[in-house]
Amino acid sequence: MAIPQTNDTGRRPFIGVEPFDASYGAGFRADEEDEHTVECRVVEDGGHFRIHQPRDAGPPTRLCFVDGVRRTEAHLTRTNPKGETITGIAGAWGAGAVLIGQDGPAEIGHVEIRRAVIFSGGEQVRLHPHPGGWRWTALSVDSEEPHAASQHLQRLMRDTEAAIADRLFAEGWLVVFDGPLHSIRRSRTTPVVGYVKTHHRRTLAVEHWQVVPGLLVGERTSIFAMKDDRYACYIRVGDPGPWAGPWAGIARLEVPASSGSAQAIATVDRAASWLPTFASAPHRDARAPVNLAPVARLEQHLHHLIGDSRLALRAVREAVMQHNRDEEVV
Question: Mapping DSSP to helix (H, G, I), strand (E, B) and coil, where does residue 146 land?
């Protein structure tokens, strides 16, 4: 299909309302002057950037969606006798999968919920378990940067997601991994689809980047090669409404380059035909339509299992007070 040179939103100023609830941040934050902006090479259609129509194909018989959530439950400090202070957090994370087989309803499984106290500066602090099932693993990061502990919490969640995905690969499931394939792309030839909802930097030449918002529901772009052995394309999974910005409803699909370009094209072709059927509805999800309905259901379940944030904060406070009393005795 020949692509248009531009679309209406490319010819005139346009104000759009992000479909993401404001508490989730912005779905589109690409900065044309960002030093991390890259222009990836198109590896399909003879190097020409085109729009592909969706094919008529149903979802696979063993399909699953893997995702995780995390929460910082308390910001901590530790001060030594010299008055030197390091920072840390008490955090929780969880991950799991929604499994959709050929027969029967979708099921949530492979769920893991964990908690940790993470301090910067290489310091570990162990808190006693608190009545009610509150337990924290003592961890540390060498960096003393203010956000180092929070970034480590993110990595812990991603590592848990990747471990769950690995188990599901082995069981023969096609995995839709909510997020980029940083953790699992290198060793996988089995089809797996990374699903990226937010766009923080431009990944294509300007003339190609400007075409993406013109996608209709189910259409995808030519695939392009990203660094770290990934192929990717853009797809519109749903219509966000007339008030939304041009990038609302757009997701990036990623597949391992190790599977080869032919397999990558076949995988994204099939995915483009059935992914829009899982798009969420605005009255059910603050991030509709780009947040997929099975993922939204899984996130809600994981948040429920992690528990009430107020109870978590109270448990941390009481465990910290017990720790300080024990330190005084020593």
Answer: coil
